[in-house]
């Protein structure tokens, strides 16, 4: 019998401190990403997502623990680990003197991939960049540069793709183009690690989700299990009135829209009775399933990091 395939990515007890230990960006983070899996890493600003990805990509050194890509340690076996990874960074970094095609050829050379033009053409077509192939990098708009960053990360056909907030500030068209292409690569067997603040994207795309808070992993489960656990029902309505304190303390309020979570129908009835008793007039009442944003907020409020 052949040995089981190693995880696409394995984080084992990863810690990272800055400023002589005053900032603990990561505190004993352990989880695996399976081969072929689409995995979402979520967390509020400063939770440690970029730090974890920087350690994975070999751009930062962990203070403790280990990270492996397809069984290759990112420190001891850096070249093999890096070759297995395609990392789309959060920041737009590029060399302004080259054309798009030159940039992708140079990146291919960096990974020792020869005669890569057929794949480069496919990347350009899939990412809507074909007519920009000969444009200079500095002539491109921000969204176009981001597309090149994605192409650059994929130029060596890495089995593990890492996307650090790839859709921050990009338009709807690029998001759709990007997700269509990344989903295709995932169906073809590439593992994907995505960090994003767009929770509806994570809900739609990711099979499993991990949540970080202040450097600790506070949730890890299948997306469907996260959605059906906890408070699975949400009561949504509009009101101009101020909620009584005992309801306001666990309501999500956005302008006139109020959302209250409930575990079952009897709890919904109880909430409505309390609103009536407090003489809170409500309009446009809806009762629906909790979405990932509801689950995320509940976990972040409840988790003690
Ligand atoms: N070079 C650094 N020096 C000192 N502290 C740092 C450094 N890089 C990150 N940190 C700190 O480490 C913590 C984690 O930051 P990180 O950028 O990993 O969070 P994040 O989850 O990616 O946040 P965001 O969603 O805002 O991108 C924060 O407290 C941050 O201030």
Provide an overview of this structure.
By secondary structure, the protein is an alpha/beta fold. The chain is built from eleven helices and 14 strands. The chain has helices spanning 49-56, 78-83, 100-110, 117-126, 142-154, 172-187, 199-205, 223-228, 245-248, 265-277, 292-302; strands at 9-18, 23-33, 38-42, 64-69, 72-73, 85-88, 160-164, 191-195, 208-213, 216-222, 233-238, 251-254, 257-262, 283-289. The strands form three sheets. Strands 6-7-8-3-9-10 form a six-stranded mixed sheet, sandwiched between helices. The protein has a four-stranded antiparallel sheet with strand order 2-1-4-5. The protein has a four-stranded antiparallel sheet with strand order 12-13-11-14. β9 and β10 (216-222) form a beta hairpin. α3 packs parallel to α5 (142-154).
Give a quick set of tags describing it.
alpha/beta; 6-stranded mixed sheet; 11 helices; 34% helix; binds adenosine-5'-triphosphate; ATP binding; ABC transporter ATP-binding protein
